Every structure is written in C-alpha cells, then in structure tokens.
Amino acid sequence: MNPGVFPISAGTAVSREKWGKHFFYTAGRKENMELWNLWWPVGLVVLADVFYQVCARRLSSLKSPLAALGMTYLVSACLCALLFEMLIPGGHIFHEIWPPHPAALMVGLAITGLEVGSIFMYRAGWPMNIGFLVYTALAIVVLLMVGHFMYGESLRPLQHVGIILAAAGMFLIVR
C-alpha cells in the first residue's frame, strides 16, 4: 500500500486528503455501504477487546490461567471453522490451512503473547484501566516506528507530537 493512501475495501483506496470527506460525509447508498464496511470491524474489535479485557482479568485469578487459555483456543478454533463453513460454502478448510502460512504461525505466536502477557499483567496487579492504556500507547508508538522504517509510511511532525503526548499521558496515568 502506498503511504498516504487508505483502504476503503478490497481493491479500493482513498488519499489521506479525501479520508475525512469520504468517510464522514456520505451522500448515497454506495457511500453508506463503504462507511459500514470501514467501521463495523472497528466496532467488533472494540466490543471484543472490552469483553476480552474483563475476561482476561478474571482468568488471571485462576490457579492455572494457561489451562483456561487452552480452552480459549479450542473455542476460537471451533468458531473459526464454523465461520469458514458459513462464509465460504463449498470451501475446503484443510486445503486452506495446510501447509500453514508462516504469517499465520507468527500471528498464533503473537496472539499467545498478547493473551499470556495480559493475563500475567493482571496477575501482577495492573489495574485494567491503566494496564491496557499503557501497553496500547506503547504499541501505538512502536507501530508508528515499524510503519515508518519497515513500510516507508510517513511520520509527520504532528505524529511526533502525538508520541510525546502519549508518553506524557502514560506518565500521568501510571503516576
């Protein structure tokens, strides 16, 4: 993807300048569908993450939170298989997952790290409203750098100010 260009849907992109106009001012049905396609995943992620944080905090008090996490992965695998069957009728799931793509294996490692890290943050005593903010702010700063250095995405002066504000905010929140 080119720096300064944002995806609308598969195969469609809009420039940074048109981003706000395109997504926050809609005139017709097609634009409303593009708006829906852009924002429903965001809503799902926010809802799922809030639910996840509440449950992860509860898991942290269990004798064996890692065993509970194993059950979590079983539920996730079953739901993914069910969604595959619903969304790709006639598809062959085993043809899709074997041989496994290296990126899929790395995402599995990353998800495990996120979940184990979150549960043990809560177990160590981090309050939910502070721990989540701290690691999210740190992840944002790191992702800005990764995007800049690995993918050539622009790092504008205003984003530098955002990094400073995020650091100041974390200091004030943790203090």
| Total of helices | 7
Assign an overall shape.
globular
Would you report the number of β strands?
2
Portion of residues within helices: over 70%
Which regions have little confidence, pLDDT < 50, spanning 5+ residues?
A: 1-6
Percent in strands: 5-15%
Task: Write down the overall mean pLDDT.
Answer: 82
Task: Explain what you see.
With 175 residues, the protein is mainly α. Helix content is 75%, strand content 5%. The chain has seven helices and two strands. The protein has helices spanning 16-24, 29-59, 65-87, 93-97, 102-123, 128-151, 157-174; strands at 5-9, 12-15. The protein has a two-stranded antiparallel ribbon with strand order 1-2. It is globular, with a radius of gyration of 20 Å. The model is unreliable at 1-6 (pLDDT under 50).
Please give a quick description of this structure.
It contains seven helices and two strands; from the N terminus they run ββααααααα. With 175 residues, it is mostly helical.
Which descriptors would you attach to this protein?
single chain; about 180 residues; 7 helices; about 75% helix; globular
Topology of this structure?
Layout (H helix, E strand, L loop, with lengths): L4 E5 L2 E4 H9 L4 H31 L5 H23 L5 H5 L4 H22 L4 H24 L5 H18 L1
Antiparallel strand pairs: 1-2
